[in-house]
């Protein structure tokens, strides 16, 4: 469903798969593991996407790749794959589908040098003919819908997202997501939502606009400027897993919501911390969860108006904890301190 009616609709479809609302959690490497996706989905995100998985690593059975593709058990299971060879993309898609993926998303948007250096991610926007071969191989390999995430282009001189989107739709892609920056911008400057409108004009399948959607007003502005059907939230969900769900409810009702009470924020991050340790194992989990603790403290401080020096002090106390028990204890103390500071 596209056009004005879709902007009023609560649900929409990717192929034959219904999506509950108009807000997607963006795939973020090292962030959107199964515990984080599950929590964000429980809190109201319409669709959550796995962190990027290299297709050849998945085919070769690397344990971390299999872990990245683990389902959340809530809503459609979306696995994002990256690669630059048709055989790996096709076989990786087959493996993901066999493991339960209901949608395969192709990454042609990642700007990281270690990805583009291997001619994957947004580097594929420099060779659309090769990009289409990868898309066609992926679609031919599976029965589930295939979607595509991209940027505006490689740089300001090669804004080719509309052409790639048009050709991808002709090949059978069922949804396109566009981050409103070029690869060479990385995350500098601001996302150009208006530039995404040219993609909307080029396709009839659903379009998601991504980049710098940090508030309810941003969601409105991004939809208006881009003409997109749905929004995709990335970095603004870090430390705020409730935020995509809040935007979804705002788009449905027009009513914004404040951050959850501090006690609720604490219970969410404490549960997420434990689940991440169980999911990744203690050695990897401690390192992986640490950044989520930091983002959660940032969000808690922002919602209570805690002074920056207080935040820095507690951040240091929590993030230098050497054991899970110490981290949990210091985290609880930090939230207590933030609550006292807010009440003072």
User: Low-confidence segments, ≥5 residues, pLDDT <50?
Assistant: 1-9
Structural class: alpha/beta
* Largest sheet features: 9 strands, parallel
Total of DSSP H or I helical runs spanning 4+ residues = 15
What's the overall average pLDDT, rounded? 92
Question: Strand order of the main beta sheet, please?
Answer: 4-3-11-10-9-8-7-6-5
β-strand amount? 5-15%
Distance between the first and last residues' Cα = 50 Å
Portion of residues in helices?
Answer: 40-55%
Query: What is the CA-atom radius of gyration, in angstroms?
Result: 20 Å
Question: What coarse outline follows from CA principal-axis ratios?
Answer: globular
Number of strands: 11
SSE ordering = HEEEHEEHHEHEHHEHEHEHEHHHHH
Defining traits:
single chain; alpha/beta; two-stranded antiparallel sheet; 11 strands
Provide a quick synopsis of the model.
This protein is of the alpha/beta class.
Task: Explain the overall architecture.
This protein is of the alpha/beta class and 344 residues long. It has 15 helices and 11 strands. It starts with a helix and ends with a helix. Residues 1-9 have low confidence and may be disordered.
């Amino acid at each position: 469903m596209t056009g004005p009616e879709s902007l009023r609709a609560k649900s929409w479809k990717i192929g034959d798969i219904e999506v509950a609302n108009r807000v997607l959690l963006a795939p973020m490497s090292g962030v959107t593991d199964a515990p984080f996706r599950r929590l964000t989905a429980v809190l109201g995100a319409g669709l959550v996407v796995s962190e990027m998985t290299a297709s050849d690593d998945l085919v070769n059975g690397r344990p971390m790749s299999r872990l990245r593709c683990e389902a959340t058990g809530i809503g459609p299971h979306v696995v994002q794959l990256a690669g630059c060879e048709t055989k790996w993309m096709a076989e990786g898609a087959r493996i993901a589908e066999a493991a339960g993926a209901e949608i395969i998303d192709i990454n042609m948007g990642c700007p990281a040098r270690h990805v583009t250096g291997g001619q994957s991610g947004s580097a594929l926007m420099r060779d659309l003919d090769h990009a289409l071969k990868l898309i066609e191989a992926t679609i031919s390999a599976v029965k589930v819908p295939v979607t595509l995430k991209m940027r505006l282009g490689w740089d300001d001189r090669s804004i080719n997202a509309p052409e790639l989107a048009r050709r991808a739709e002709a090949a059978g892609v069922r949804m396109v997501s566009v981050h409103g920056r070029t690869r060479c911008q990385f995350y500098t400057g601001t996302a150009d939502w208006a530039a995404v409108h040219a993609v909307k004009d080029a396709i009839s399948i659903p379009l998601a606009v991504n980049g710098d959607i940090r508030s309810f007003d941003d969601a409105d502005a991004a939809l208006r400027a881009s003409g997109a059907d749905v929004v995709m939230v990335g970095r603004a969900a870090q430390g705020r897993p409730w935020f995509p769900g809040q935007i979804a409810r705002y788009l449905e009702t027009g009513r914004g919501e404040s951050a959850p009470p501090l006690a609720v924020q604490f219970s969410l991050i404490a549960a997420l911390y434990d689940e991440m340790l169980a999911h990744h194992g203690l050695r990897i989990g401690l390192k992986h969860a640490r950044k989520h603790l930091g983002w959660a403290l940032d969000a808690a401080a922002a919602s209570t108006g805690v002074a920056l020096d207080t935040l820095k002090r507690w951040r240091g106390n929590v993030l230098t904890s050497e054991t899970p028990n110490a981290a949990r204890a210091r985290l609880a103390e930090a939230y207590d301190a933030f609550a006292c500071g807010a009440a003072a």
